[in-house]
């Protein structure tokens, strides 16, 4: 049986903070302000990242954005292959998304399947003007033609490696690590 061991820390709490500040500025600049903008975090670790981005944008622009929480459990394409009973959480989008600019937020972009599921979930809720994607880490290895509009850090990885994101309050620390099967 293979064990997963931490290989290296690629982002500490300060690197995460700096990446989110940069992404917040890029979101504001790319959207020419924050009018009709909604930040939506993909459960689980996309949610604290979305909250932090919204707080940073509020600090810059002086106005709080609506922040939503998206549960994609029932939209996963591997749902029928999972051996456990999936736990479905509530999706909470506080505003009507029709005609809005949605920024989906997730921790790691890998195969693209999570984002595909999130796109399906968002479209089921309404017809936004545009959907953008912000991720803390893009590790490559895409299986679907999906790319992020905003990336905190590009990290080329091997298929034997796992990118582990730890964010408070979900975890006990703020850091991104690379783990490897041995």
Overall mean pLDDT: 93
Low-confidence stretches: none
CATH architecture of the domain at 34-159, please?
A: 3-Layer(aba) Sandwich
List SSEs in N-to-C order.
Answer: EHEHEEHEEEE
Radius of gyration: 16 Å
- Helix fraction, binned, reads 25-40%
Tell how many strands the DSSP assignment holds.
8
Arrangement of strands in the largest sheet: 3-2-4-5-6
Question: Beta-sheet strand percentage?
Answer: 25-35%
- Tell the overall outline: globular
Overall structural class, as computed from helix and strand content, comes to alpha/beta
Provide the CATH topology of the domain at 34-159: Rossmann fold
By CATH reckoning, the class of the domain at 34-159 would read Alpha Beta
Major sheet details: 5 strands, parallel
| C-alpha termini separation | 9 Å
Number of helices: 3
Oligomer kind: single chain
């Amino acid at each position: 049986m293979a064990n997963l061991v931490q290989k290296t820390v690629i982002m500490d709490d300060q690197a995460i903070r700096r990446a989110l500040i940069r992404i917040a500025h890029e979101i504001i600049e790319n959207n020419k302000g924050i009018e009709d903008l909604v930040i939506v975090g993909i459960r689980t670790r996309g949610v604290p990242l979305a909250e932090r981005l919204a707080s940073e944008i509020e600090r810059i622009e002086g106005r709080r954005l609506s922040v939503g929480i998206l549960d994609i459990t029932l939209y996963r394409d591997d749902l029928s292959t999972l051996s456990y009973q999936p736990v479905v959480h509530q999706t909470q989008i506080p505003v009507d998304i029709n005609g809005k600019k949605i920024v989906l937020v997730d921790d790691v972009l890998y195969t693209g399947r999570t984002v595909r599921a999130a796109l399906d979930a968002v479209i089921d809720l309404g017809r936004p003007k545009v959907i953008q994607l912000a991720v803390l880490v893009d590790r490559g290895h895409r299986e679907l033609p999906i790319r992020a509009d905003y990336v905190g850090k590009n990290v080329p990885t091997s298929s034997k490696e796992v990118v582990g994101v730890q964010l408070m309050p979900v975890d006990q620390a703020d850091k991104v690590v690379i783990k490897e099967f041995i």
